[in-house]
Amino acid sequence: MIKFLSAVLICVGLICSTSVQAQAEQQIKVDIQKKLGTTVKVKSVHPAPISGLYEVLVGNDIFYTDASGKYLFQGEIIELATGKNITEQRQNDLNRIKWSDLNQSNAFKTVRGNGSRQLAIFSDPNCGYCKRLEKSLQQLDNITIYTYLIPILSPDSAQKAKQIWCSADPSKTYIDWMVNGVTPNGKSDCTTPLDKNLAFAKTYGITGTPTLFFIDGSRFPGAVQITDIEKKFGSLK
To answer: For residue range 101-112, what is the model confidence (pLDDT) as tens digits?
Structure first.
């Protein structure tokens, strides 16, 4: 009976502790939101790996605060014993998606070699960094690339994206434009997935192009170096 009562008291204590912690996190969130105003949204507040600090997620950015919510600062937490960048790891986890969330019917597919390695790219046809990336990607073999067009840079981006998607061979038309500078000039009045791609980008915080995703859901923003892409593929084996 004594052991049973002790177990019950421990459980009650844990429940109470969890409740108090949740209330503290909610209060910090409310206080910081008031101070930041309505221009940005505080998504969540959770204890940071360091005692006394809390992680504050504002949009897709990580900040830290103290228990009083008086200070807000941005920086990286490095674990000295291992050299691990805890903030970077946490940011990568937050940016991760489920590969299955990507609707491949909303992308056109480019296959080279046996196509065994898979990569998804969100691209704007007028994006200079996207063009640079596409030229680099020509070096990769045994790859399947799913390209999701998101025209976010200009009205002309939407026109070109429609012409690419509506062409007889979207992958070829896209590569001809991005790599060889051959302007797409076909029809643009077919049904496209552009609105769906833009909605997906908004939901998952894809605010720039190019943005790459690998099958483990990890996200690489920007014109990533081929060496880094190959390194990532190597880690997925």
So the answer is: 999 999 999 999
